[in-house]
Specification:
It is a single chain. This protein is of the alpha+beta class and 89 residues long. The protein has a single domain (2-88), classed as Alpha-Beta Plaits (2-Layer Sandwich). It contains three helices and four strands, in the order E-H-E-E-H-E-H. Strand 2 and strand 3 (37-42) form a beta hairpin. The longest helix is centred in the N-terminal third of the chain and has 11 residues, at 16-26. It is globular and about 35 Å long.
Length: 89
């Protein structure tokens, strides 16, 4: 399985709850990296993940789906996020 980074910037905050619910429904293995960035474990390619989320985006929103690889480095307030990334990658 690959780990993908999903990062977005929504200009209409009413879209956030449906987007997050869809993300969590589609990808049971995920970690929240920041307010608008999630790492998900999936066999789907980035294009299919984006296409699943695209109907929830407005024309002025931004969304990227990027494959994560090692090496990576970062810091999180929650230890479980770091452990999830270490185990998933």
């Amino acid at each position: 399985m690959a780990v993908l980074l999903i990062t977005y910037d929504l200009n209409n905050e009413t879209k956030r709850p449906p987007l997050l619910q869809t993300l969590k429904d589609l990808f049971p293995a995920w970690a929240r990296l920041s307010e608008s960035s999630y790492a998900v474990s999936t066999d789907l390619p980035p294009e299919q993940v984006y296409n699943a989320l695209a109907p929830l985006l407005d024309a002025d929103d931004n969304c990227f789906v990027i494959t994560l690889n090692r090496p990576w480095w970062g810091r999180a307030q929650q230890d479980d996020v770091m452990e999830w990334l270490k185990g998933a990658l």
